[in-house]
């Protein structure tokens, strides 16, 4: 065998590195998917890349990978579009220090580092938002990337004394939020996962939706060999069950596999044609349907989930986690708890912690700053934004606490990357109330809303709120680019200041 | 969305009114509870537009999401939900509720206590007060009588002289009245500013306090009215509109955008004054002249600094401000200031070569700079939070070099 010595050397190095990683990382051996990712990425190549990156860092332009994390419909695409537009057009954002102090000289879009990825459709998105009939960007169905290069005047005297233009390359990645939820699969066997999914499907809230799929499973002999048609039928029934759940905002933390909802380029491939199955009675046959599905499940994990996270999420420097807390609260008591579960599971995949040069070498880059943002703040009057942020803080206590413990900076805020409403005061019988006006589909005039008030505590919010407003889809307001301060937003500048401010100083 | 346009809110019509930048919607025609529409200033247009819309509505929520019920069902918020009955006026407590037994006794006790204190004060100050008041009254009476008799005498001499005298008298009285009015206004402005500062400090001390909104409104209102800051405020409103920023954030932007400009103006004034004081003290031959000049310059500086922040104190106002500033210096670190100033001066090798006169001048300059910084602290509507507080050492360093330069220049000229 020609490759044996090479393989040996590699595996030796991997072992060495693994032991390094354990020395440096005496974390609790939680069977989280994170450790799986780490062990596979912290190979010799990882160390070499880390060393090379570190040694060349002073001579190359610094770049920052900003992870925009969020389930589907949480506003990732709009956030990236608004961020890029505000920086590209040089708008002054008063709470984003580099921008407020006019230290950002210019910004341009550059060719992205990963040439094999589609480019983020910034131009199409912004044209849609600023067009005569503004529309929100279409929902994301595949990975895309964008690099924004920012040239700035440093604040610190030492940096200013260094020659050359001061640049920061900001790499942004957009992807379907559905894919994020695949993460827990990495640490689950096919049997465990199937049990969990089928258990959840039998709950009263979802039983009706799951019935056609469960019936089809009942008709099949799981230990017998089946032809491809059976695979396709079951997979289709299962994915339509997932779709129905998503439409009703039920059980969003367990809508796996994510590619069943948003297949991307892999539609129709065998690794996307399987379904969770109940354990067959009797001995498991190797050639049976169950075993075949289990095999495809493993293939899905190996060829779809792991590369996605390894290539795009293991190298993040900063992260913003977008959460639609209002939407979850409006769709019922279960949804908030479910959102909490989803957020906790997803964030287990990321490795927070400070980045010193030594730790970077030893264990790869870590996420130094995490911003938890509660999106759609524009669906509430501004007086209630602090309360919304406070509730998110309570909801995300566990992952945030974990990140803080490992040395990352954590912040919470209410956010609306593009503000689609205006504040209004409603007066009746001498009393005034906070209201909103916003544009709806099919109306030539903005409509006035009374959004009511958020409950005072998270416990009350978890019981659900009874407001159609939280699920109302406002249109982007017309002629946004003519507003004096640029695209209207809520808290975008504060978010940018937290995420990028220190790097541009 | 223009003021005056009407919108549907469930079964009612509401009307937009523009009020300092934010729109207000008035509910107009709602006959849910069969009430008269409220007598609003826009009721004329209301009656025109309300007729077709204001039909009696069923008590269920309308299917459109136009006015959702409140997220939580507190009765006060339910008032605006469509179809619900408009709340009766909040039950107000009776105009003069009879205080209950223990309350009354405690109230009367407090009154008694106060009366006793007053009596005690009267005992100690009573005769002095009486003396002062009677003397002042006597003096005023004499003055008036003297003026009248003088006028009569002048009219007796010649009616032209009498007329001239009465014109002069009228002019004097008018200017006196105007001066008093101005002082009065300045003093009230100062107390307003103090109130503003208190509001802002309270708002910033606890996060998410409801006071922040009120404080921001008050600050905006005060600074939009002044000529020197109106343009800054317009800029600020454009940069951080109410729509997108909550009050605490807007206070932050206000400090960074508007107050930063005002701060640098104030520091310029302070530096200039410190330099002048230092130079004059160095070259003046008489100590008395020094003291008078320094006092005058410092008063003037404090007044200018106050004017930058929109306080514009009158004469009495500046004296009062001076007193506050002195108190501030004494309380918060007059010692530190003097220390810092001396260190600044004695630490350098420059001091060795300086004459006593020059070092005296520099100390004087530093002290008035310190006074100016304290005045800044007093007059600023917000405490220093996001902007760097200008330090005495910064001003001191520039002071030494500029004084040396100006003395060298005058030396060369000789």
Q: Which keywords apply here?
A:
heterodimer, A: 505 residues, alpha/beta, 2 domains, three-stranded antiparallel β-sheet, 19 helices, 14% strand, disordered N terminus, B: three-stranded antiparallel β-sheet, 12 helices
- Count of helical segments of chain A? 19
Largest sheet of chain A at a glance?
A: 7 strands, mixed
Strand content of chain A: 5-15%
Oligomeric state of the chains in view: heterodimer
Distance between the termini of chain A: 54 Å
CATH superfamily of the largest domain in chain A: P-loop containing nucleotide triphosphate hydrolases
Percent of residues in helices of chain B: 55-70%
CATH topology of the largest domain in chain A: Rossmann fold
Strand order of the largest sheet of chain B: 1-2-3
Order of helices and strands of chain A: HHHEHHEHEHEHHHHHEHHHEHHEEEEHH
- Rg measurement of chain B, Å: 32 Å
The average pLDDT value of chain B, as a whole number, equals 70
* Helical run tally of chain B: 12
Low-confidence stretches of chain A: 1-42
Q: Characterize the largest beta sheet of chain B: strand count, sense, and whether it forms a barrel.
A: 3 strands, antiparallel
């Amino acid at each position: 065998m020609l490759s044996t010595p090479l393989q040996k050397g590699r595996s030796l190095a991997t072992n060495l590195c693994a032991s390094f990683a354990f020395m440096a990382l005496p974390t609790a051996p939680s069977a989280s998917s994170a450790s799986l990712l780490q062990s596979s990425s912290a190979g010799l190549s990882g160390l070499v890349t880390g060393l090379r990156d570190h040694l060349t860092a002073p001579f190359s332009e610094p770049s920052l990978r900003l992870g925009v994390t969020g389930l589907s419909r949480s506003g990732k695409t709009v956030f990236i579009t608004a961020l890029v537009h505000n920086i590209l057009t040089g708008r002054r954002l008063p709470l984003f220090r580099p921008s407020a102090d006019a230290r950002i000289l210019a910004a341009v879009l550059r060719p992205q580092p990963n040439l094999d990825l589609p480019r983020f459709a910034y131009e199409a998105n912004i044209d849609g938002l600023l067009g005569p009939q503004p529309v929100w960007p279409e929902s994301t169905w595949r990975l895309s990337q964008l690099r924004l290069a920012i040239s700035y005047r440093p604040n610190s005297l030492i940096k200013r004394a260094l020659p050359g233009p001061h640049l920061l390359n900001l790499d942004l990645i957009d992807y379907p939020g559905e894919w994020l939820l695949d993460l827990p699969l990495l640490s689950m066997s096919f049997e465990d996962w199937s049990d969990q999914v089928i258990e959840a499907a039998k709950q009263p809230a979802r039983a009706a939706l799951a019935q056609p799929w469960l019936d089809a499973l009942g008709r099949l002999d799981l230990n017998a060999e089946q032809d491809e048609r059976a695979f396709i039928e079951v997979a289709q029934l299962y994915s339509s069950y997932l779709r129905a759940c998503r439409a009703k905002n039920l059980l969003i933390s367990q809508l796996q596999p994510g590619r069943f909802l948003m297949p991307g380029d892999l539609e129709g491939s065998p690794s996307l044609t399987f379904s969770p199955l109940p354990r067959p009675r009797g001995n498991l046959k190797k050639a049976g349907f169950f075993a075949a599905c289990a095999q495809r499940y493993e293939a899905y994990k190996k060829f779809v989930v792991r590369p996605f996270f390894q290539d795009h999420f293991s190298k993040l420097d900063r992260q913003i986690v977008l959460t639609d807390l209002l939407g979850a609260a409006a769709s019922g008591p279960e949804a908030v708890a479910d959102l909490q579960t989803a957020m906790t599971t997803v964030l287990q995949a990321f490795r927070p912690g400070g980045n010193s040069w030594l730790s970077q070498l030893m264990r790869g880059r870590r996420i130094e700053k995490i911003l938890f943002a509660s999106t759609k703040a524009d669906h509430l009057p501004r007086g209630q934004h602090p309360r919304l942020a406070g509730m998110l803080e309570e909801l995300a206590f566990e992952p945030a606490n974990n990140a803080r413990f490992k040395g990352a900076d954590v912040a919470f805020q209410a956010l609306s990357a593009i503000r689609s409403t205006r504040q209004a005061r409603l007066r009746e019988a001498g009393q005034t109330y906070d209201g909103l006006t916003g544009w709806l589909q099919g109306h030539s005039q903005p409509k006035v809303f009374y959004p009511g008030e958020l409950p005072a505590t998270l416990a009350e919010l978890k019981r659900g709120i009874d407001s159609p407003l939280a699920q109302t889809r406002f249109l982007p307001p017309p002629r946004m680019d003519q507003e004096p301060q640029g695209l209207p937003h809520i808290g975008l500048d504060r978010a940018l200041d937290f995420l990028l401010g220190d790097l541009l100083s | 969305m223009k003021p005056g346009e009407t919108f549907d809110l469930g079964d009612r019509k509401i009307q937009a009114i523009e009020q300092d930048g934010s729109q207000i919607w008035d509910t107009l025609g709602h006959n849910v509870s069969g009430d008269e529409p409220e007598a609003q200033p826009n009721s004329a247009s209301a009656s025109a537009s309300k007729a077709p819309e204001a039909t009696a509505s069923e008590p269920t929520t309308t299917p459109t999401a136009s006015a959702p019920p409140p997220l939580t069902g507190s009765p006060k918020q339910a008032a605006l939900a469509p179809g619900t009955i408009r709340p009766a006026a909040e039950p107000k407590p009776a105009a003069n509720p009879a205080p209950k037994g223990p309350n009354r006794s405690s109230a009367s006790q407090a009154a008694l206590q106060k009366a006793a204190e007053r009596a005690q004060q009267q005992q100690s100050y009573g005769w002095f007060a009486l003396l002062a008041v009677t003397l002042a009254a006597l003096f005023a009476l004499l003055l008036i009588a003297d003026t009248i008799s003088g006028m009569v005498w002048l009219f007796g001499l010649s009616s032209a002289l009498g007329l001239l005298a009465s014109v002069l008298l009228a002019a004097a009285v008018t200017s006196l009245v105007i001066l008093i009015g101005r002082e009065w206004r300045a003093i009230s402005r100062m107390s307003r500013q103090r109130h503003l500062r208190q509001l802002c400090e309270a708002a910033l001390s606890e996060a998410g306090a409801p006071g922040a909104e009120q404080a921001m409104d008050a600050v905006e209102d005060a600074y939009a009215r002044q000529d020197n800051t109106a343009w800054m405020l317009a800029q600020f409103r454009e940069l951080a509109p109410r729509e997108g920023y909550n009050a605490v954030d807007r206070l932050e932007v206000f400090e960074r955008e508007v107050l930063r400009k005002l701060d640098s103006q104030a520091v310029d004034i302070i530096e200039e004054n410190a330099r002048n004081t230092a130079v004059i003290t160095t070259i003046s031959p008489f100590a008395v002249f020094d003291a008078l000049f320094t006092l005058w310059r410092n008063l003037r500086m404090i007044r200018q600094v106050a004017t930058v922040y929109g306080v514009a104190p009158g004469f009495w106002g500046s004296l009062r401000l001076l007193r506050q500033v002195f108190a501030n210096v004494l309380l918060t670190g007059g010692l530190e200031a003097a220390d810092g100033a001396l260190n600044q001066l004695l630490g350098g090798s420059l001091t060795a070569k300086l004459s006593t006169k020059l070092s005296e001048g520099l100390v004087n300059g530093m002290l008035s700079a310190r006074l100016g910084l304290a005045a800044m602290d007093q007059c600023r509507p917000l405490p220093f939070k996001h902007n760097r507080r200008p330090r005495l050492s910064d001003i001191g360093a520039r002071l030494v070099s500029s004084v040396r330069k100006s003395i060298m220049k005058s030396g060369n000229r000789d």
